[in-house]
UniProtKB/TrEMBL annotation:
Molecular function in Gene Ontology: hydrolase activity, acting on carbon-nitrogen (but not peptide) bonds
Chloroplast as UniProt keyword: no
Annotated InterPro entries: Amidohydro-rel, Metal-dep_hydrolase_composite, Metal_Hydrolase, MTA/SAH_deaminase
Name of the molecule in the record: Cytosine/adenosine deaminase-related metal-dependent hydrolase
Organism listed in the record: Sphaerisporangium rubeum
Segments forming a coiled coil: none
Keyword S-adenosyl-L-methionine on entry: no
Amino acid sequence: MTPRATVVENVAVAPVAGPEITRGYLHIEDGRVAALGEGPAPDVPGAERVDGTGCLATPGLVNTHHHLYQWATQGVAQDATLFEWLTALYQVWAAMDAEVVNGAATAGLGWLALSGCTTTTDHHYVFPSGRGDLFAAEIDAARDIGVRFHPCRGSMDRGASDGGLPPDEVVETLEEILDATAEAIDTYHDPAPGSMLRVAVAPCSPFSVTGRLMTEAASLARDKGVRLHTHLCETLDEEEHCLAQMGCAPVDYMEKLGWLGPDVWVAHAVHLRDRDITRFAETGTGTAHCPSSNGRLGAGIARVSELLRAGAIVGLGVDGSASSELTPLSGEMRQSLLFQRARYGPTALTARQALETATLGGARCLGRDDIGTLEPGKQADVVLWRVDGFRSAVDDPVGALVLGPPPPVARVMVAGRTIVEAGELRTVPQDTAAEAGATAHRRLLELAAGQGHTVAGEVHG
Ligand SMILES: [Zn+2]
């Protein structure tokens, strides 16, 4: 049972908007933030009282890019480039069914919640026919874990015979994609404030999708009033592919197709030219920055500090677990800070900027004004981080959160409902979530082997 009101007292608060609180309170009522301030907490009759001594409260983290099904294929093609890695995995993924997706998503979403994530997107783009309702399978998992969910109906329609990277067996036809995407929006999308589920339209990437699908997907999304997501400028291989096959650089190509704008956010944006940064800022196009994945695949690192300086929107993402194994979203704040400083120097990104990209920046990528900060009226998506114990030698709690490895999580709340407490999932038994992921892994490898595909021998690229 979620209490109608909760008061967290004796707590430090980094609300992301407004002044930070050294030792004060956070009052939650009916799933929203009612008040926060310095000093003793008000008396709220009937409220659950939580002692936040030793904790820092922040807005819940927002994950802006993921592929939950990839939980089932972690640790493969360990030394591969993106294109080599994809080529090793496409046909294994083609064997997935709804059971695999539900198990992988349960583990992946549980893992995210444990790292302070309260809202996540997912980009699912492999839909082998006759394998059950894969989109519904991940939505069921999100409801069980209790996070806010923005599943993106992904797609690929440009197989190898059309010059694309994926084998023909894993692509769908344009008509199938548009029908299924419209149906997903009509069935699940909830635009209301405080929504727990919003759908986005997400053709996979310039090298796996036709230009026609990109334009038709954009008009479908705009007709329905939902957002657009894709991969863009992840690697130099992609840039070469675009120059050779489309005759222009990736951002120019996407601009021609109507894919820059305030309703678009793209994953990675590593290889941007100076004028691309300006256009992202001017058009309100968001970037899902995935530093661990970019590092794992040796893709390069996004020009985040330049994007932020230009006024562009940047959020953080863990990316799929097969290109960024077991990445805690909380740890991506530190990764982004370290990578930016390695590239630009010690003032490139502050701990507070890293926290802002992980919260408010992510909310803006997803087009939400009801989450991402702790202000009266916003959704009560809150994380209490333990910054005592070994971390108590750092006086600045935001520094303790971002500069070192992620602190333990005392509590995670979504709309005031506790989904993690004392570092343990409260919605689904933690062992059950972990086992669901392991079972999904074994099942997918068996299904793939049955179709003659294996990842054996691919372990080292
Ligand atoms: Zn991705």
